[in-house]
Design a protein that fits this description.
The chain is mainly alpha-helical. The chain has helices spanning 26-44, 48-68, 80-95, 99-103; strands at 4-7, 18-21. It contains four helices and two strands; from the N terminus they run E-E-H-H-H-H.
Length: 117
Amino acid sequence: MAAYGQFAVAANTDSTLVVGWAGWDHAEQARALARLLVTGVSQDGWDTERVTPLLAGLVELEPWLRQWHADPVPGFPTSPAQAISGLLDQRLVAAGLTRADVAAWRPPAPVRGRRRG
């Protein structure tokens, strides 16, 4: 039986749960986050608030990518580390954020209790 982790982000028009296998290496995790980020921005028009958690995830993976995935992959023009860092640089500029900004990001506190109304 495989263990699964969830990326708690869904497209604006799609409530499908995004599930990732816990056995993914850092490059596979980064690729999944990058794909979700690019799709969300290009197809669903995600704003800075929506992409910040994905950017934070990529920033968190970046040192591991540099350590374990810095060599070019056959059939691709660059290494996973370079590809993700380049995408991250572009998306941070577009969002007006820095690596420090997204590294400091924390999810909002959960709302407790019943709704009144």
